[in-house]
């Protein structure tokens, strides 16, 4: 199945038993179990380097692995093990879902995915829109996904805010389109950060070092500029940009792509039962996205195991839905 999207050419619609959004310890463990249960499983992961486990320098309390291991190395082991058992791991940022039908539909810039069961495992590294103008202009110039929206800014000026790996990678994506990428960092990248150095060396990148974003300005047609304050300057600076891409990590469950379709608790965590099922049939939620009181890798992995076993049971009881791939 395929369809055409704007200037991006023909994009595929891919069907599977199970789509897992998020490739952290929760998502990878769920995929390991579901793949071993012979369920056609796809993980859609925005970026393997930016989740909570991926940024953990050293993980000394995950049972059975070396106390010297980095979170990134542990996550790679988990991911590789799931892939070895048949998981289809793809890098893609999910920007929307439709959970109303029998088939759950997941939208990404790389294509659309349809599954008989959907698992939400995007963790809790999100934050509320906190810059002045950020919420007001979200979707009208403010974005969190350069791969989704970068092409709209061909030959235009844009700003990228943040110093983490995701900010650097997304700014690199924008250099393919924008005339100027203003990179704004309140703390500077480390001297040995070669990815940051590569970015700054690009001719269309202007690095605003030790500078804070104060406000995003705009009008009825969207973003028109930003206000900045450098630590060394007396006054604020106004820069005309049409796009602002914000990459700052926080500690709020990442649920923005759900469009309010799944019930959440007052603290932002997704409501689940003992089997990790949400209030929407065919949709499960695992790991930090639940805003669990004890956010630990082993807890996230345990959630993934529970959900996969529950999903296997659920899908086996619904064999009437026809699929067009063969289970051996
Ligand atoms: C600094 C730090 C240190 C920690 N130290 C420890 C420790 O020592 N021991 C321990 O057990 N736990 C530790 N934790 C907690 C542990 O890392 C988390 O509990 C665990 O990683 C949660 O797993 P998760 O899979 O739910 O989420 P995450 O690990 O956050 O993974 C979420 C994944 O979802 C992806 N994603 C997000 N949005 C989207 C989207 N829209 N589309 C597609 N993919 C998306 C992200 O790229 C990421 O890969 C630490 C956490 C932090 C932040």
Which features would summarize this protein structure in a list?
FAD/NAD(P)-binding domain; eight-stranded mixed β-sheet; 2 domains; alpha/beta; 328 residues; disordered N terminus
Structure description:
With 328 residues, the chain is an alpha/beta fold. The chain has six helices and 16 strands. The strands form three sheets. Strands 1, 2, 3, 4, 5, 6, 7 and 16 form an eight-stranded mixed sheet that branches. Strands 8-15-9-10-11 form a five-stranded parallel sheet. Strands 12-13-14 form a three-stranded antiparallel sheet, with no helix packed on it. Helix 5 links the parallel strand 10 and strand 11 (205-208). The chain folds into two domains: 2-125 and 251-316, 3-Layer(bba) Sandwich (FAD/NAD(P)-binding domain); 142-246, FAD/NAD(P)-binding domain, CATH 3.50.50.60. 21% of the residues lie in helices and 26% in strands. The radius of gyration is 21 Å and the shape is globular. The structure holds flavin-adenine dinucleotide. Flavin-adenine dinucleotide binds at residues 21-27, 44-48, 50-53, 55-56, 59, 61-62, 93-94, 121-123, 125, 254, 257, 287-289, 295-298, 300.
